[in-house]
Amino acid sequence: MKHTAIVPSVGRMALSLVLLVCLLASCAVYTPPRPQMTNVVNPASLPGAVRTAEWDIGAMRYVWQGQGINYNEAGLLPVLLLVNNHSGRYPVIYAEECRGIGAGGAEYPPYAMEQAAEVVFASTAYKKSAEAAIVGGLTGAAVGAGLGALIGSGFNHGWGAGPGALIGAGAGALGGAALSQRPSMEQYRASLYQEMATYAWRPAPIAPGALVPGYLYFPINAGIHSVRVVLRVDNQAQTFIVPVSNPAW
After folding, report:
1. CA distance to 33, 57, 73, 242, per residue, from 101 (Å)
2. How, if at all, do strands 211-219 and 107-108 pair?
3. What's the pLDDT at 136?
4. How far, in Å, are 25, 56, 73, 137, 172 from residue 181 at the CA level?
5. 29 pLDDT exceeds 90?
6. pLDDT tier, 116 (very low <50, low <70, confident <90, very high otherwise)
7. What is the dihedral of CA 233, 238, 242, 248, to 10 degrees?
8. Whole-angstrom distance, CA of residue 209 vs CA of residue 234
9. Cα 54 from Cα 146, distance rounded (Å)
10. Three-class SS of residue 17?
11. What is the C-alpha separation between 248 and 76, in angstroms, rounded?
């Protein structure tokens, strides 16, 4: 008598899912996941922080950590702005109203996101970084260890598993297989743009009890040592001069 093997329905479903994941992964497009902010330390711990009864404001300069593109060599000085709201109000800070203060008191507006990206893309540092990524294949550290490294390392790994996993790492088998593929120049460019946009300061109301980080992008040769921040709340404007601190590690 011929016996027919009976595969349990659960087993068949699991097998089908595995095959589907493998199939999708083989043709997946490189799409780095968007990192989610969780917790960072209080800006009041920075030596140059502004501390008030309602909020603490700090600023820290970007320092290249040895992986990914060096934004300083690419013509940018990213300054990480941190605001801790311990009031019951909802303040807002607009990047375009901030000013970097350089030598002799000269003031510089931060680049708009598109301008900052164009400065980077026109640099020799970007071209070298992109060529290295194309030749060697892009890893999680190649992109995620850029701007996110300052927050991840300096602030108790505020995005969880660390900067290499933030933008570069995939979610599960599908993401891992997709990201193991060698990217094109266009994909690498899009990845850097996504990194810069993701970590940029956003003009959203800061909720009571929230601690919000975000980058302001200034020209590297301006000698920025402080940031003038305009905080708006309840139809009022408060202006603060915040010294730019070195990384706190």
Report:
1. 34, 16, 20, 10
2. unpaired
3. 61
4. 10, 43, 27, 7, 15
5. no
6. very high
7. -30
8. 17
9. 32
10. helix
11. 20
